[in-house]
């Protein structure tokens, strides 16, 4: 009896190609499901209105930057502190500070805090902040007018947590 050695045939090529594309399609479907279930994609409710408001918001942000007002955030354990100074380094006269903590991906851990005044230019709150990366948006107002609006990306490890 003689053994036949046929080598790599057309059937082998078909199976290899089919397996390759099956893996690619499975990975793409999996990634698409994860992407669509973790973020809505919504950035603004109405893009037309947002585009009309852009120039006004840009001018306001330039004016805030030119004022020299700066804020410094610190998070240690449950203690959250925000110090705000004017352009000359003196404590800024502010009525309210609101912080919005947002995860860079997903919104299931997001929260917002209104800080209590602990002195001129110093605001505090007591809230647990989970470890990892956050985008913190700070809005400081005086007499209902926004004096400072900034957003910073932080890693709680920077604060020794």
Could you give a short description of this structure?
It is built from two helices and eight strands. It is α+β, with helices and mostly antiparallel strands and 161 residues long. The mean pLDDT is 87.
Discrete helix count: 2
Largest sheet: 4 strands, antiparallel
Question: Looking at CATH, which topology of the domain at 69-159 would you report?
Answer: Immunoglobulin-like
Number of strands: 8
Question: Hey, roughly how much beta strand do the residues contain?
Answer: 25-35%
Helix and strand element order: HHEEEEEEEE
- CATH arch. level architecture of the domain at 69-159: Sandwich
Shape: elongated
Report on this structure.
The chain is of the alpha+beta class and 161 residues long. The chain has a domain at 69-159: Immunoglobulin-like. 31% of the residues lie in helices and 34% in strands. The chain contains two helices and eight strands. The strands form two sheets. The protein has a four-stranded antiparallel beta sheet with strand order 1-2-6-5, with no helix packed on it. Strands 4-3-7-8 form a four-stranded antiparallel beta sheet. The longest helix is centred in the first third of the chain and has 29 residues, at 10-38. The termini are far apart. The relative contact order is 0.14.
């Amino acid at each position: 009896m003689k053994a036949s050695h046929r080598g790599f045939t057309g059937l082998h090529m078909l199976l290899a190609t089919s397996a390759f594309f099956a893996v690619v399609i499975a990975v793409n479907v999996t990634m698409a499901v994860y992407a669509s279930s973790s973020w809505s994609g919504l950035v603004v409710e109405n893009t037309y209105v947002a585009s009309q408001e852009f120039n006004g918001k840009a001018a306001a942000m330039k004016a805030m930057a030119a004022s020299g007002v700066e804020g410094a955030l610190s998070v240690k354990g449950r203690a959250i502190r925000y110090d705000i100074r004017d352009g000359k380094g003196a404590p800024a006269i502010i009525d309210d500070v609101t912080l919005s903590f947002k995860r860079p991906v997903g919104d299931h851990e997001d929260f917002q805090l209104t800080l209590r005044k602990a002195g001129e230019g110093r605001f505090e709150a007591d809230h647990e902040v989970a470890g990892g990366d956050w985008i913190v948006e700070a809005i400081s107002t005086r007499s209902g007018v926004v004096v400072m609006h900034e957003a910073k990306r932080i890693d709680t490890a920077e604060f020794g947590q």
